[in-house]
């Protein structure tokens, strides 16, 4: 067979390609048994499609010299390798020109047939047609979309028809403990955050002045009693005498003196009772069942009458205030069942009922300004935010192991019964 020549202009071989091995030379033959395991994917496609001119292009002389005299030293890192076509003795169209094949991945070698097609013949390219989706995949996609739509509808229905808010706060009444007498505190018998019962002694005040006051009041009572009894005896004697011995005017004078001394005696008895009461008040007791909070009182402090010395949280007065948007109030009425979930106890929902709805909040535009006129904000935004109205939620029962505290955050969900809601429904129901 005549040797083939490479035409740069047409980028093709003028004659069919013959691959010769050591001692043999035939026509077009299969390269797959002799191809190394590291041919690149581009060479695989070129050989498969019959474009051997691109896959078996001669190597320039400079590269041939470099291939004959490889540099000494450690082997290069793993990567693309230079490979001669089927060995050093192979020729292309009778010319001993070593050729180079681009590296080929193992996947390309395993999946390609690697045959050299005759010159002028182009192998058809493999068409890749995507497989149609299976019935199960279609059903799974439709089921997922339907489930997402159903969840969206249920969430919207829950939000619209079940009023709820995360803006809830636990509240309680507080008792400001103030002494009813003045004096220096001698002992504080409770600690901060301690639970107390109604009537427990909280602290004591120095009682020496009040003991003396009781003694003085007792002496005044005895003196007044004696004077009153003496005046009664004199008036009695005057009344037993005849009109010739004592005049009527004198009898009336002695009787009026006796009545006045009786009033004086009654006053001293009242003073004695007040002195004894003040003596009892030196021991300040708890007015409610609750907890001591923010205790700052200590022994040695002078306690003044009427000034708060200690604060107690009433343990029997806890409730929840939920701040609902005004757009939800038409579905909230007094008596509706409600569920309260504390942020600190998410696994312990509490049952309760709507106690009442708030009747007013602060209006910032109503604050008096200069000359007592209202200070109206001149800026009015197009997006109007709904105001939040406080709604009282009375909890049915607080669990025994729940450490509830005023100020805790709660999520409140009102469960209104099935009823038609109209304009002004909340006002009529509450």
Automatic annotation (TrEMBL):
> What's the protein name?
HlyD family secretion protein
Please give the GO cellular component terms listed in this UniProt entry: membrane
- Which species is this UniProt entry from? Methylobacterium nonmethylotrophicum
The organism's place on the tree of life at top rank: Bacteria
Composition bias, kind Basic and acidic residues: at what positions? 43-56
SUPFAM superfamilies attached to this UniProt entry = HlyD-like secretion proteins (SSF111369)
GO molecular function terms attached to this record: transmembrane transporter activity
Q: Which family does it belong to?
A: Belongs to the membrane fusion protein (MFP) (TC 8.A.1) family.
Residue span(s) of domain p-hydroxybenzoic acid efflux pump subunit AaeA-like beta-barrel = 317-414
């Amino acid at each position: 067979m005549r040797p083939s020549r490479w035409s740069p202009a047409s980028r093709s071989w003028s004659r069919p390609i013959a691959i010769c091995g050591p001692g043999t030379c035939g026509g077009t033959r299969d390269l797959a048994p002799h191809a190394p395991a590291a041919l690149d994917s581009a060479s695989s496609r070129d050989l498969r499609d019959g474009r051997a001119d691109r896959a078996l292009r001669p190597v320039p002389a400079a590269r041939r010299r470099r291939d004959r005299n490889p540099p000494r030293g450690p082997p290069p890192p793993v990567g693309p390798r230079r490979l001669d076509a089927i060995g050093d003795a192979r020729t292309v169209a009778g010319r001993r020109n070593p050729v180079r094949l681009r590296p080929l991945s193992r996947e390309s070698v395993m999946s390609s047939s690697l045959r050299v097609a005759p010159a002028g013949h182009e192998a058809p390219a493999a068409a890749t047609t995507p497989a149609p989706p299976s019935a199960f995949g279609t059903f799974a996609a439709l089921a997922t979309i339907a489930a997402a739509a159903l969840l969206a509808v249920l969430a919207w229905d829950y939000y619209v028809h079940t009023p709820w808010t995360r803006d809830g706060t636990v509240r309680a009444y507080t008792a400001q403990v103030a002494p009813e007498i003045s004096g220096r505190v001698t002992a504080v018998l409770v600690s901060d955050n301690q639970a107390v019962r109604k009537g427990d002694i909280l602290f004591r005040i120095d009682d020496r002045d009040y003991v003396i006051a009781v003694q003085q009041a007792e002496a005044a009572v005895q003196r007044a009693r004696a004077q009153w009894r003496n005046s009664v005896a004199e008036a009695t004697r005057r009344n037993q005498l005849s009109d010739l011995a004592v005049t009527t005017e004198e009898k009336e004078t002695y009787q009026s003196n006796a009545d006045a001394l009786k009033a004086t005696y009654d006053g001293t008895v009242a003073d004695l009772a007040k002195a004894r009461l003040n003596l009892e008040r030196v021991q300040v007791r708890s007015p409610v069942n609750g907890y001591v909070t923010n205790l700052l009182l200590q022994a040695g402090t002078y306690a003044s009458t009427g000034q708060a010395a200690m604060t107690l949280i009433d343990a029997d007065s806890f409730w929840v205030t939920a701040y609902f948007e005004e757009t939800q109030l038409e579905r909230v009425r007094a008596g509706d069942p409600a569920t309260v979930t504390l942020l600190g106890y998410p696994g312990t929902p509490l049952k309760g009922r709507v106690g009442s709805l708030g009747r007013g909040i602060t209006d910032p535009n109503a604050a008096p300004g200069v000359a007592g006129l209202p200070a109206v904000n001149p800026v009015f935004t197009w997006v109007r935010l709904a105001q939040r109205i406080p709604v009282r939620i009375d909890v049915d029962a607080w669990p025994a192991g729940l450490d509830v505290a005023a100020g805790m955050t709660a999520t409140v969900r009102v469960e209104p019964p099935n009823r038609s809601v109209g304009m002004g429904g909340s006002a009529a129901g509450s």
